[in-house]
Amino acid sequence: MFKNIINIFVAYALLVVFVGCDKVDKNHQSDFYQVSQAPIDHGVFSARGDFLAFVSQDQIIVADAQGGGTMAQFALSDIQVTDIALSVDNRLLAASFMTYVVVWDLVKQEKLGQFKVVGESEYAKTSKVAIYDNPMILLIGMTDGSVNVIDFKNKLTKRVKHHDAKISFLTLGPQRQLLLSAGHDGLVNISDARTLQPKFEHKLSKRVTSLAYNLEQNLLFISDSMNEQWVFKPFSTQDYSIKLAYRERFRWFRASAISPDGQYLATGSSKFWWTLWHVKTGQEIDAFAIQAVTSTAMILDMHIDRANKLVTLSSDGIVEYWEINTLINSTD
After folding, report:
1. Are 68 and 196 in a shared domain?
2. What is the pLDDT of residue 29?
3. Which of 42, 196, 259, 278 could form a disulfide with 160, with the two C-beta atoms 3.0–4.6 Å apart?
4. CA nearest neighbour of 300 among 36, 24, 25, 31
5. What is the pLDDT of residues 225-271, one digit of tens each?
6. First vs last C-alpha separation in the chain
7. Coiled-coil annotation: which residues (predicted)?
């Protein structure tokens, strides 16, 4: 207990050094619980934010994001996990390893299969994975910039290479009509999911570190590893781009989420705080420190629901809930 208190004190001291005590609100209104006592290497929320999956030590665990306990747990014989993903209906779990992907059925609590994947380069390894059910589709991003699309219903495998470097973000849009990808080459690509032909592209000068989208509101947020953080309307008939405004020379965002109503953007830094922004203006509303056990804690994933409730998952294994409307009112 005493060690934990010391770690929290050290974490906050470092936070003051990096961003200044007037920049981060540590007296936030939030609830939290610790889902893992051991550090988390990979962690993601489900599409609705009601479940989460994470890798800790030699296990993959799926848990209720509302604190309802562990839903599934699978031992790993290979600890070189590159990414994990949950299907939208929470029935399937996928984990990518260096040269293959494993899929589990969460309802039956059993392994469905293991699938070897390759890129265009013989040296390519996996970097991102996404999975969908009914019908089952696997997306696998590779370190050479290629993307594999495996359609199990039609027994088809397609590969496309829009990127020249490691894939860092990969997903299908609503109704599975669009394929979104981003990479370490700085390119953000939205393609037709059937033809794999590009419909929107934007190139950043550095690697893409974070991407969030709300295609119902025609909004796309992208961030590189330096000072390019933009909100676009990718399918607008008029040019629309908003750059996030801040005083520092650069900021590095590891996670992000856009509210369903399109008003707010949340970004997680490479340290242990997150920032709330106005989408329409790119102006910062406030920054908030997360609960931390170690000085290296950072946000792995974040999700905003239709009630404007944000949930964050940290590398310390802490799930934390934030009422955005309450936070907005407290900063007025």
Report:
1. yes
2. 55
3. 196
4. 36
5. 989 999 999 999 888 999 999 998 889 899 999 999 999 999 998 78
6. 36
7. none
Whether residue 196 sits in one domain with residue 263: no
Same domain flag for 231 and 252: yes
pLDDT score recorded for residue 320:
96
CA atoms within 13 A on the CB side of 17: 8
Domain containing 174 equals: 38-203
Q: What's this model's pTM, rounded to 2 decimal places? A: 0.89
Of 156, 171, 203, which residue is a domain's last?
A: 203
pLDDT number for residue 331: 72
* Residue 240 tokens, joined: 């629309």
What torsion do the CA atoms of 26, 50, 314, 109 make, to the nearest 10 degrees? 160
> Which of 175, 178, 174 lies closest to 196 in space, CA to CA?
178
Tokens of 255: 């996670």
Provide the CATH number for the domain around residue 111.
Answer: 2.130.10.10
65-to-45, 49, 136, 272 alpha-carbon distances in Å: 8, 7, 24, 20
Q: Tell which of 180, 203, 226 closes a domain.
A: 203
191 with 71, same domain: the answer is: yes
**In the predicted structure, residue 24 carries a pLDDT above the cut 60:** no
